[in-house]
Amino acid sequence: RNIVANNLTIVNSNSSGLPTGLNCLQKNFPCNRGAARYSEFAIKCGGPQIRTTDVIYQTDNETLGPATYFVTDTNRWAVSNVGIFTGTSNPLFKSFVSNQFTGTVNPELFQTARLSASSLRYYGLGLENGFYNVTLQFAETAILDSATWKSLGRRVFDIYIQGTRVLKDFDIQREAGGVSYRAVQKKFRFQVKENYLEIHLFWAGKGTCCIPGQGTYGPLIQAINAIPDFIPTVSNKPPSSKKNRAGLIIGIVVGVGVVCFLVVFAIFYIKRRRKFYDDNEELLGIDIMPNTFSYSELKNATSDFNRDNKLGEGGFGPVYKGKLNDGRDVAVKQLSIGSHQGKSQFVAEIATISAVQHRNLVKLYGCCIEG
Hints:
Low-confidence stretches: 8-17
Helix content: 10-25%
Mean pLDDT: 84
CATH superfamily of the largest domain: Galactose-binding lectin
Structural class: alpha+beta
Number of helices: 5
Shape: rod-shaped
Number of domains: 3
Largest sheet: 6 strands, mixed
Radius of gyration: 42 Å
């Protein structure tokens, strides 16, 4: 069953898991619904972009199949096709001719066309609600107006806009006075109420099927244009690429900043660890390895080396009374900056005190080598 042609809704599905654009073509066309972005659209059916004096017709040269759809990346418009031509093994669903066209000042607009064997639908999406002037442009390019049997073919189809049939048994060549390669314009005025406009070309099985060749039947259209019959209040522009670019730049800058921070932190951490291991390596040379404390532990133990906890002055610095986290009372000797005692001298002092055992000497419990 064709979801687009039947205008169904996929329930209990994550829209992010749907094929690209299909969520825009579900029931009630949810893309930009209730938040209109556009006030017009123009499509060069079956061909590349063409600019006329007052309109830019957007490219529509996507290859469609017997039951396929296409939605522009800006969600401005979409097209769907249903049906397969009988008697042809490789239907293209679009055509190109280089003939000269009459009845138009823009002949290049009619050199390409979109074809369908049964049902061809175009949708204007995200439109501001209001009345629109819709122009459909046709020219018969397959059934010639020669005085031979090849001119006996008849391409007949119906045209619906917003579900209302506006033309029944529409015959392009008859509208052109029986002439091929002559432009035919059909104009309509329709109201958009729910931010979308649907144009449906439908073959009801009428006309011929095989003259001048197999598969010469069904809808054919060269261009579509819809403009507002009111003063628009929307930007008529797709989401700003500048905003997207700004977001990308911000993301890159933040990412680089985080990486730089992590690199600096890693270097700092490695240096700290290396210094710690270098210091401990010197202590490992001592026969009796003392306990080691961090500076913050001793700072807490002595209430930030409070003057009230000062016991006196020792060699190379003052001595403070302190209490460790385990409740042990200790005397903490702080190396004075003015003592000019180096690390090697400090380690030597630690080794000496650790080696000497006497009842009148305070036993060394540990040390701190940070700083």
